[in-house]
Specification:
The chain has 353 residues and is an alpha/beta fold. The chain is 50% helix and 10% strand. It has 15 helices and seven strands. It has a seven-stranded parallel β-sheet, with helices on both faces. α7 runs parallel beside α10 and α13 crosses α14. The two termini are 37 Å apart. The structure holds guanosine-5'-diphosphate (GDP) and magnesium ion. Magnesium ion binds next to α1.
C-alpha cells in the first residue's frame, strides 16, 4: 500500500527544503521515497523529482495562454491537474505499491483552505489506495507575535477542516526562532495550544480595537480542540526523525524493509536468539501505537536546543560532528591499511573502492 505526505503551507514556509531533507534522511535509512512536485511555479527544485507537474503544465503557459495573473494561473493549473488526473495516476503507479511519496504543493494557501481541486485530487489518491497525511508547515516566526499566532491558528484549523486528512501542523525553521527576540511564553504553550486565554493581555495591547474578536477566534480554536504543532529544524537529524515518527503514526505507516535489503550497519543479528528475546517483526500494530519518545520529542527539549541554550548546543554539536568525522576518517584509514596488508601495494583506483 503506498503511503505519502501532502506537504502544504504558505510560500517560503520551507516545503521544498523539507522534501529535500526527508529525501536525504530516508535515503540514508534505506527507506523508499519519491517526491512529486505539484508546484508549477517551482523553478529551482532542490530534490530529485520523480514526477514534475511542469511536464504537464507550467505556470507561464497558463498565464500566457489564458491571459491570467500568477494567482489565477496557479488555480487553473490545479484544476487542469484534476481534469488530467490519469496523467498523475499513471506515473504514480510506476513508482510501485510500496512507494512513499511526498507531494510538494504550491504555497497559495487557498489551495489547502478552500479551493476544491486539491481536495478532489486527494480523494482520488485515496481511492487508488494511497494513505496520506497532510504536513502543514508554518514559519515558527509566527509565534513571536500574538496576533500573527492567532492568524496561523486559524489557517491551520481551516486547512485541517478542509483537507480532511490525518494532519500534522509544524512550526518550521525553529532553529531561527531565537533571532526574532524573546518569546512571551515557553514554546510548549504555542505547540500545545492549551489555554489561549493567556493571550488576552497581549492581544489587547497589540490591537485594542480587535481584542474581543481575537479572543472569540481563540475560543473557537479551543472549542475545536484540533490544532497543535510539532516543530522542525530541517538540518537537525533528531528533529527530522521525530517528525517522521509522528507522521508514520498519523498515517499508520510501519516500514518493514524488503527481505533482500541488508540490515543497516551495526544492526545486532538476533535471528538465532530464542523467540522470547527476538524483536517481534509481526507486532506492527504495537510499534505503530507506541508512544513517541526520544530527543526533540518534547517541546521543552526543543526550547532548550534552539532558545535557552542554543549557543552551548551549537558548540557541543560541532564538537560531536568533528569527532564523527575523525572516526570516519580513522575507519577509512584502517580499511585501506587492511587492504594493503592483504594485497600488497594497491593502485589508487582500488583504494577508492
Ligand atoms: N534556518 C532554516 N531555514 C530553512 C528551513 N527550512 C527552509 N529554510 C529556508 O527557507 C527558505 C524557503 O524555503 P523553501 O523550501 O523554498 O520554501 P517553500 O516556498 O515553502 O517551498 C529557503 O531559503 C530555505 O533555505 C529550516 O528548517 N531552517
Ligand atoms: Mg517550494
Amino acid at each position: 500500500m503506498p503511503f505519502g505526505e501532502l506537504v502544504c503551507g504558505s510560500p517560503g514556509s520551507g516545503k521544498s527544503t523539507y522534501c529535500y531533507g526527508k529525501h536525504q534522511l530516508f535515503s540514508a535509512l534505506n527507506r523508499p521515497i519519491s517526491i512529486v512536485n505539484l508546484d508549477p511555479a517551482n523553478e529551482n527544485i532542490p530534490y530529485p523529482c520523480a514526477i514534475d507537474i511542469s511536464s504537464l503544465i507550467t505556470l507561464q503557459d497558463a498565464m500566457k495562454e489564458l491571459g491570467l495573473g500568477p494567482n489565477g494561473a496557479m488555480l487553473y493549473c490545479m484544476e487542469y491537474l484534476e481534469a488530467n488526473y490519469d496523467w498523475l495516476d499513471d506515473r504514480l503507479k510506476e513508482l510501485g505499491k510500496d512507494a512513499y511519496v511526498l507531494f510538494d504543493l504550491p504555497g497559495q494557501v487557498e489551495l489547502s483552505t478552500n479551493h476544491e481541486s486539491v481536495k478532489r485530487i486527494i480523494q482520488k489518491l485515496g481511492k487508488s489506495g494511497f494513505r496520506l497525511a497532510a504536513v502543514h508547515l508554518c514559519d515558527a516566526h509566527y509565534v513571536t507575535d500574538a496576533t500573527k499566532y492567532i492568524s496561523v491558528l486559524m489557517l491551520s484549523l481551516r486547512a485541517m477542516l478542509h483537507l480532511e486528512l490525518p494532519h500534522i501542523n509544524v512550526l518550521s525553521k525553529v532553529d531561527l526562532i531565537k533571532q526574532y527576540g524573546d518569546l512571551d511564553f515557553n514554546l510548549d504553550f504555542y505547540t500545545e495550544v492549551q489555554d489561549l486565554s493567556h493571550l488576552e493581555n497581549l492581544l489587547s495591547k497589540a490591537s485594542p480595537r480587535y481584542a474581543a474578536l481575537n479572543m472569540a477566534i481563540c475560543s473557537l480554536v479551543e472549542d475545536y480542540g484540533l490544532v497543535g504543532f510539532e516543530t522542525l529544524a530541517v538540518e537537525d537529524k533528531e528533529s527530522m526523525l521525530h517528525l517522521s515518527r509522528v507522521i508514520d503514526k498519523a498515517n499508520g505507516c510501519v516500514f518493514v524493509p524488503p527481505a533482500d535489503v541488508p540490515a543497516p550497519e551495526g544492526t545486532v543479528d538476533m535471528s538465532s536468539a530464542p523467540a522470547s528475546q527476538r524483536p517481534n517483526a509481526m507486532g506492527l500494530f504495537t510499534s505503530a501505537m507506541a508512544t513517541i519518545k526520544g530527543p526533540r520529542s518534547d517541546a521543552r527539549d526543543v526550547q532548550e536546543r534552539w532558545i535557552d541554550a542554543k549557543e552551548d548546543w551549537d558548540v557541543y554539536e560541532k564538537a560531536q560532528w568533528k569527532k564523527e568525522g575523525e572516526m570516519v576518517r580513522e575507519e577509512e584509514a584502517k580499511r585501506k591499511s587492511r587492504i594493503r596488508e592483504r594485497n600488497g601495494p594497491v593502485s589508487q583506483n582500488q583504494q577508492n573502492m
